[in-house]
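Help! Submission page says 'invalid entity' but I think these are all valid:
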Amino acid sequence: MIANQQVFQFVLHLADDSLILGHRLSEWCGHGPTIEQDIALTNLALDLVGQSRLYYQYAAEIEGKGRTEDDLAYLRDVIEFRNHLITELPRGDFAFTVLRQYLWCSFRTEFYQHLLTSSEIKLGELAAKCLKELQYHQRFSITWINRLGLGTKVSHEKMQTALDELWPYTFEFFQPTAAEEKLINASLIPDCRDIRKTWDQSCQSVLREASLVVPQEHWDFQGGKEGMHTEHLGYILAEMQFLQRTYPGLVW
Amino acid sequence: MIANQQVFQFVLHLADDSLILGHRLSEWCGHGPTIEQDIALTNLALDLVGQSRLYYQYAAEIEGKGRTEDDLAYLRDVIEFRNHLITELPRGDFAFTVLRQYLWCSFRTEFYQHLLTSSEIKLGELAAKCLKELQYHQRFSITWINRLGLGTKVSHEKMQTALDELWPYTFEFFQPTAAEEKLINASLIPDCRDIRKTWDQSCQSVLREASLVVPQEHWDFQGGKEGMHTEHLGYILAEMQFLQRTYPGLVW
């Protein structure tokens, strides 16, 4: 029997991933290289924060203890967050931003495709809602990977540097936690290990086309899904949660 | 008759100045150019945070409403902070850091010298305690202003850039608020306008010796002492107050 607690944690993981990556993207607002791209990145941020709300609401419902989406987003501390480490890394430059978006997004769309048929109907419904937006995000980021990867010497170098930095963080996408193993065994969620091959092939092909080279030697990072985070997450939360922490229960 | 409220606000101003500048200095911990300077900056930070405690404790006593030094440091929002704007500006590079330290510190020591004879005995006592440390801070920063101002072309340029940025923020040192005017008229605190000339002379002499030129054209900034701050203060408080906001009443 699957404890609600495990589904709750898994839904929180999906919510946290979107919220934290959305927050990082929102940092570009007013700082984009052109106004068109500025608003494009801000729109991606809005999509992701919107998606996180769907999952926080569902998580609150599963938990059934009266906590709201706001409580879950704004009143948990670092160790309770379940996002992949890649989402919390500092904003970086534009190359870093679009490449992270692509790496995360191509994993997430692949994962949601498989989640569509989950026996937990609600998980399939939410995945379907998110997929449409994420597929657009993916096209957006591939366009930029090509433009910058095949652009000038400088833009190519920036993309390659970003890839060298980001690649080790993709390892975590394919490492189920102990709690996820139980959900996988109950056929409630896809086994992330199974989608590694497909993801890897399409990813390598996109990167190769942009003449970027996946680094051969690197460390693999993980721990985010179990609450072990980089130092960066604390600073995000300090800033993002200030209002609710300072004025508890504040409403408009 | 001088309302306690005005003395309270003035003491808070002294406390906030030291806390916020101390916080900025503390950001160098682990990032100094050499280990000796790293620990030197961290020691200045400790001195200033220590001084802020003396003033917060005194402010809490004046207020007499049961708030503690921790409440005053960690549970007030931006608009209630009374520090000079210069103290909240981002850390900057090493040139910026030592020059800010000098500009602020040379004003503060001059001001405290005059405060020694305040008819509010406690204010004189606290000023005397702080002066000894601040005089050391001043010597420390003058040494670096000379070394960098007269050093290489690059170090000189960095110092001059820092001076151009910082100078407009010194204006605020010499603008009493309406509340301060009342304390001045009651001879409780020195008139900051009166010490401008002495400060200016010694300052210009130190800068000239380091072959630095005070910018002629600039905007003058003010507002910090009345709660009108730059965007930077909010980020400082978000980070600095996270613990007390998140775990109210937390003790070791």
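Support: the input was valid. A stray whitespace character was the problem, and the output above is from the cleaned input. The first helix of chain B runs from residue 4 to 26.
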